[in-house]
Amino acid sequence: MNIVKWYKNRSFQFKLVIGYLVLALIPMLCVTWYSYGKTRNVLLTEAYQSAEQEAERIEKNFSTMVEPYETILDVLYVDQMLSGYLFQDYSNDSYEDMFYYIDKKLSEICLMNAGIYKICFYSNNETLPQDNYYFYSMQDLDRRECVLTFDAIGETVFCGTSGDGKAFHMNRLMNFYPQGGMKGVLSLQIENQQIQPLLETINSTDEIYLVDQKGYILAASEPEMAGLPIRTRMPEEDLEQKAQIEFERDGISKIGNIQSGVFGTKILVISDKETVLKDAKDVSRRMMFLILCSAAMVFLCIICYTRWISMRVQKVVYAAKRMGQGEFDYRLENMGEDEIGQIGLAFNQLSDQIQELIRENYEKKIRIQTSELNLLQEQINPHFLYNALAVISALAMREGGKQTMQAVKNLSSFYRISLNKGKQVLSIQEEVELLQSYLKIQQMRFRDSVQVEYEIAREVLTYRTIKLLLQPLVENAIHHARKEEEVLHIAVRIQKEERDVVFQVTDDGCGIEAEKLIKLRSSLRRLEEGYGLRNVANRVRLAYGEDYGVRIESQEGYGTTVSVRIPVNE
Asked: Cβ(302)–Cβ(17) under 8 Å?
């Protein structure tokens, strides 16, 4: 259904109600949308700022926490005696002194730093005893830890948890340039309980992640996430490229902040976007509720107001219908002095004018126009009759009965169609048949000296036209264009052009002199009595209006084209 058409067909009161509602609701909806957008942006900004502040706080606390442990690693790293023991060849030597020194030193450190879970060494020194407490083979070191430690080139790195999940590892490569190819890794293991409290946040819905250089989770607000790749929780590419992040996980929008920490680590604070925007949606819902309540009150007021206006408009509509039914003396009373009252006053004045017009002009013009149309339409019939009777008389004198009978039959067919039971219009197909009956009579007179061709679009045959359009045009060509002892060719074309039908009769006769053509065109533009082309032009203008009529194109010695244009009438 066409909505515009549907709306146009609604009542005036309906249109007023809809118009007022639209005008009232649009500003309200705009304010609601604007408020929601502003609140949303403010909440998102605050969420990003909160995440950033939270990440900075965790990073600062984390740096403070690991600072003493990094100092311990520095002390052990520069301990020449310790390095000597670790890389010494014990194939022929006793290692009691080494055990004593290391146990004493590490015990003191652990005693003074309660957060240390263990201090151990990973070495490729095959002569060094492996007690699985202080000393381990390099092959026992987790591959990821090994890569991180060696890539750091002597710097402290923060690695993942131990196999039992009780501690975090801070590793450092020892003996960076070892003699004999020996290498070792010093690993300081910090109890998990030292780091986990740092990841606690005021907002229990926030997700906190501590991520190492390789993108693995070292610690999280959800401890079970430790050891997993961060890509399982967010797009890994965001980890390197952005400070503020926004992504989707399992169809849920997430936002957050990334803060760089010590030892190449990163701290992530991630929030649920829907939770952040909950307040904005609550505000929007409350405003929408207020809008609906306001709209309901406005609607009731509009109904009452428009009903009062519509009742007055309905009086005007009712009066117009009464006038349309022919009650031209109907009047509107007590309509007031506003715009609707002015319409009522104008209606009464129009009623008076119509009655006066009917009395003085309308009926008179209708009678005159009808009389003129009938007169002009009938003028042409005697004209043809005189010519047809002359042909029949000549045939009777020259050849006798058979052709005379045929001529009388064609004349009868011509008048049967042209009279059309008194109707002034017929189909184009009937108009063509009328022309053909006429031409059969004329060809008995002129034999082969007149040849006619037809080019008629099939679609126009059912259209309606006033009768006797084509016959006068062809008759005019036969009587005025034919040259002595030459065959006259006449082409009859009927085509549809947009919303008009064009009748065209073209001959190859003698044509019209330029001066006579000017006079003929001038006479066709005036409503004057006459036969032939002028009669056709007058009837077309009376039937279809001044925009339609007859057009002549001619060149002396080359022929003439006469066109008649009428509107499509189905």
From this structure: yes
Nearest residue to 406 via CA among 434, 432, 374, 443: 443
Q: Which amino acid is at 313?
A: V
Question: At a CB cut-off of 8 Å and minimum separation 6, what does 557 contact?
Answer: 510, 511
Whole-angstrom distance, CA of residue 279 vs CA of residue 64: 36
Closest CA to 245 of 234, 235, 255: 255
pLDDT in tens, 37-51: 777 777 778 777 877
Q: What is the fold, at CATH topology level, of the domain defined by 364-567?
A: Heat Shock Protein 90 (3.30.565)
Sign for the CA dihedral angle at 442, 443, 449, 455 comes to positive
**In the prediction, which pLDDT does 368 show?**
47
Question: In sequence order, what are the beta bridge partners of 465?
Answer: 426
Give 506-542 pLDDT, tens digit per residue: 999 888 888 888 888 888 776 555 457 888 888 888 8
**What is the model's pTM?**
0.45
Q: How far apart are CA 101 and CA 91, in angstroms?
A: 19
The DSSP line for 136-164 is EEGGGS-HHHHHHHHHTTTS-EEEEE-TT
Indicate the pairing of strand 244-249 with strand 252-260: antiparallel
Instruction: Write the DSSP symbol of residue 360.
Output: I
3-state secondary structure of 426: strand
Q: What residue ranges do the domains of the chain occupy?
A: 13-292, 364-567
Our CA angle for 482, 483, 488, nearest 5°, is 50
